[in-house]
Amino acid sequence: MLGYVTLGTNDRDRGAPFYDAIAAELGASRMMENEQFIAWGVPGGGAGIGLTRPFDGKPATVGNGVMVALAAKDRAQVDRLHAVALASGGTDEGAPGERWPGFYAAYFRDPDGNKLNAFFMG
């Protein structure tokens, strides 16, 4: 159903290495790029993610209650994504663990404060 998600940034060059590392762990890479934004994904694959300076020229802000969930292939990849996020300038919002039976997740924020999680159901 989703084609892609974009998150705002006030410093594209600061945020890009964070998403390069996350994308690499998920087997994706940069697909499109210009001075305004960068998009990561797999051509012909599932939903991608973009990082953009707002087109209206105003500062990017974090949406309260907004979170992007990244589907992991297993619990070990959830653990790796959380570690990659923290090593790439992200901040911890919840260590990897089972949140309820069959739902394993970790939560983190990117360098701009956008909230993401990595999850595995199974």
Q: How does the overall form come out from the CA principal axes? A: globular
What is the H-and-E element order?
EHEEEEHEEE
Q: CATH superfamily assignment?
A: 2,3-Dihydroxybiphenyl 1,2-Dioxygenase, domain 1
In DSSP terms, counting alpha (H) and pi (I) runs of 4 or more, how many helices? 2
What fraction, in percent, of the residue positions are helical?
Answer: 10-25%
Number of strands: 8
Organism: Muricoccus nepalensis
Protein name: VOC family protein
InterPro entries: Glyas_Bleomycin-R_OHBP_Dase (IPR029068), Glyas_Fos-R_dOase_dom (IPR004360)
Pfam families: Glyoxalase (PF00903)
Description:
- This is VOC family protein.
- Residues 3-116 form the Glyoxalase/fosfomycin resistance/dioxygenase domain.
- The protein has one domain (4-53, 68-121): 2,3-Dihydroxybiphenyl 1,2-Dioxygenase, domain 1 (Roll).
- The protein has two helices and eight strands; from the N terminus they run βαββββαβββ.
- It has helices at 12-25, 75-87; strands spanning 4-8, 29-33, 37-41, 48-52, 68-71, 91-100, 103-109, 115-121.
- The strands form two sheets. Strands 1-4-3-2 form a four-stranded mixed sheet, covered by helices on one side.
- The longest helix has 14 residues, at 12-25.
- The radius of gyration is 14 Å and the shape is globular.
- The mean pLDDT is 96.
